[in-house]
Specification:
mainly alpha, 2 domains, 7 helices, transmembrane, membrane, transmembrane helix
């Protein structure tokens, strides 16, 4: 059993940058969820009499109307949740790398961060465009009786529609609902930027660790006798910070069943002990 222990050697500028970026994304995602949840508190089951109307007209304005388009609100919550998951994946993988937990899986950790960041960034950009376009399409009808035939987003309702009837809307809300709603929407821009930076850092980390080559490498056809282009072999439980290369036989085409016994593979110098005897080893080892 390998005990996990922290090592300063594993802390590099790149992994530290990924950790800091993930922490920033974590705080932004939590703030996004908190802000949008705060906006929901402005929508209460309360009806207020329309200014200038009489009780005989029975004209009331609901603080929680039925004609609300909840699509942008749901999308913002999804961005906050996705950013939260992506940030936790990044933080967990980096800390696992620093503490040496499952050290042989470090390259897979890098791929996990890269994949999570790419998916999160793509989703954030799609939501960003959707929310801003939806907000731009909102419009307030000229007469209040026409409002029931129009849909409003929550931000437009608390910032434009409801304040157009009641001037002191913040007093009725109990807090500056419009400012909170706008802050939640513009927080999407910050989350997209941080997510894009995390994608760049994670891609660079994957490329540096060599995991990208494993994913994009084409498998060799053994039946056709095609030799591998590089002498890279898979290690048996060796630490991930070692890379080994084994010198292969130059030409496999000249090897047959008749001369197989005469073929000699030169041993690397590292395979010979001080007393001249040989021991089994997979290859040369060097720090990345």
């Amino acid at each position: 059993m390998i005990m996990a222990n922290f090592s300063v050697i594993r802390v590099t500028a790149l992994t530290y940058s990924i950790l800091v970026n993930s922490v920033i994304l974590l705080f932004l995602s939590v703030a996004e969820i908190v802000l949008e949840d705060r906006v929901l508190h402005a929508f209460r089951s309360v009806q207020i009499q329309y200014p200038g109307s009489s009780l005989a007209e029975w004209l009331f304005v609901s603080m929680n109307p039925r004609n609300i388009d909840s699509g942008p609100t749901t999308a913002i919550f999804l961005v906050g949740g996705g950013g939260l998951i992506c940030a936790l994946v990044g933080i967990g993988c980096i800390l696992a790398t620093w503490w040496g937990v499952m050290e042989s899986k470090t390259k897979k950790f890098g791929l996990a961060i890269c994949l999570a960041a790419m998916i999160n960034t793509a989703a954030d950009m799609a939501v960003l465009v959707y929310v801003f376009v939806t907000e731009a399409k909102n419009a307030t009808p000229r007469f209040y009786v026409q409002w029931q035939k129009t849909t409003f987003t929550r931000e437009y309702w608390v910032c434009k529609a409801f304040p157009s009837v009641f001037e002191d809307a913040d007093i009725l809300y109990g807090f500056p609902a419009c400012n909170v709603a706008q802050a939640a929407r513009y927080m999407l821009v910050a989350i997209c930027c941080v997510s894009a930076v995390l994608v760049g850092l994670s891609v660079f980390q994957v490329q540096k660790a060599g995991a990208l080559g494993r994913v994009t490498a084409k498998p060799e056809d053994i039946e056709k006798g095609t030799p591998p282009k590089s002498g890279f072999l898979k290690s048996n439980g060796l630490p991930n910070h070692y890379r080994h290369k084994v010198e292969m036989v130059p030409a496999f085409g000249s090897v047959s069943a008749n001369n197989l016994g005469n073929v000699r593979v030169q041993r690397p110098p590292s395979c010979v002990k001080n007393d001249g005897t040989a021991f089994q080893i997979q290859g040369y080892y060097s720090r990345l």
